Amino acid sequence: MVHGKGPTTLLLDLFANGHNAIIPKHIVEQDPVNALKTQIIGTGPYRIKGTPTESLWQYERNPDYFIKGLPYTDELEIHIIDDAQAMLAALLSKRIHWSGAFLHPNLDGDLAKSAAQQNANLIHGPMPGLIVTHLALQSEKPPFDDVRVRQAVSEAIKREAISALGNQTGAVGTGNYALGRWKMSKVVQEQLIGYGPDMKKRIAHAKKLLASYEAEKGKIDWRKIKIQCSSNIKFSCENAQVVQQLLKKIDVNIQLDPMLVAQHRANEVSGDFLMSLLGAAFDFDDPNDTFGQLFVTNGGRWYQRRSIPEVDALFEKQKFTADPEKRKALIWEMDQIVMNDSAYLVLLWFDLHHVRWNFVKGWTPTPNIRSTNARMDYVWLDLPELPHTQ
């Protein structure tokens, strides 16, 4: 039985999402934390064949799958290849047939295009993603506990430079999906801190903000402040280098602190950082998802730790506002507040890329990386040597 507080348009989306699963109560109630580590259950189209390793997972067709005639493929092999260059080499040699069961940011547009250009039978599939690259500023620690410093950093970062100077493409946006129904209009967006078109004016404003802070609280020693980034998530340290260069325009010279993503994300969750550049993926083009995770107090990805009671109140109010235009007004209001507060900087809603051989059929990428054909039951290979083509 599902109990709700009010009507929501997300109900069907929630039930259909790849992250939501129905799990037998008698299996998990004995040990809710560890049950699924020892008992593999489910009604999926494939079942594990053999013992998974760190480099290979093998699956075979589930003859008891609840949809008759599916899946189309008898077996699947998932090769775990962390390095994007190595993965594309495996693709070109046909050791693997497509670059992944879902789109991953480690494969950027330049790499994907380069691979597709090497063989006319390879298909490059770009797709706008429900995923942001962010710069989180720890608002509980000085100097980022002062809005002037946060706003100065935001003003200095030209969002378009992430695409122009780095390897990511995408759309500049705010706390709502930049290509979705709730996106802020360009006219309103350009009035926000960090989004104005006049960079000369923004740089001057940033310097003024920092001067005001330092006159009151003392000079900031930027040599002690580093941007944490993930060395094994390609865009993370690349974008951190872009931000590093942009901040020099306001005389802010900081170093990078690269580490593996497991440690980096753990630091974001615990608050053990000052500046952190990583990303966040979402399931829905809806502020209940993005704001609920990023900006509401104690949200699932509330890395910046900045609590704004007014935003919390607006979030609750918009959730059950049925009229789309009235709801949009509330959404834009809270969006403007958090963008101007500048604790969690949305640098880019970025594109994701995929490369596959043209004989891979039935696979369609979507903006939601978690629900793109997660079950893989409609995927098939159109090869001349297979029985169905003879």
Describe this entry's structure for a reader.
The protein is α+β, with helices and mostly antiparallel strands. The protein contains 14 helices and 13 strands. The chain has helices at 11-16, 25-28, 35-38, 84-92, 109-116, 147-156, 161-165, 186-189, 199-217, 234-247, 261-270, 287-294, 309-319, 324-341, and strands spanning 46-48, 56-61, 75-79, 122-124, 127-137, 170-171, 226-230, 255-259, 275-281, 344-352, 355-357, 360-361, 380-381. The strands form four sheets. The protein has a six-stranded mixed β-sheet with strand order 6-10-5-9-7-8, with helices on both faces.
Please give a quick description of this structure.
The chain has 390 residues and is α+β, with helices and mostly antiparallel strands.
- CA-to-CA gap between the ends? 50 Å
How many extended strands? 13
CATH class of the largest domain: Alpha Beta
CATH fold name of the largest domain, please?
Dipeptide-binding Protein, domain 3
Helix content: 25-40%
Cα-atom Rg, whole angstroms?
23 Å
Structural class: alpha+beta
CATH superfamily heading of the largest domain: Dipeptide-binding Protein, Domain 3
| Order of adjacent strands in the largest pleated sheet | 6-10-5-9-7-8
CATH architecture of the largest domain: Roll
For the record, the count of structural domains works out to 2
Order of helices and strands: HHHEEEHHEEHHEHHEHEHEHHHEEEE
Mean pLDDT across the residues is: 91
Protein name: Solute-binding protein family 5 domain-containing protein
Organism: Candidatus Entotheonella gemina
Pfam families: SBP_bac_5
Family: Belongs to the bacterial solute-binding protein 5 family.
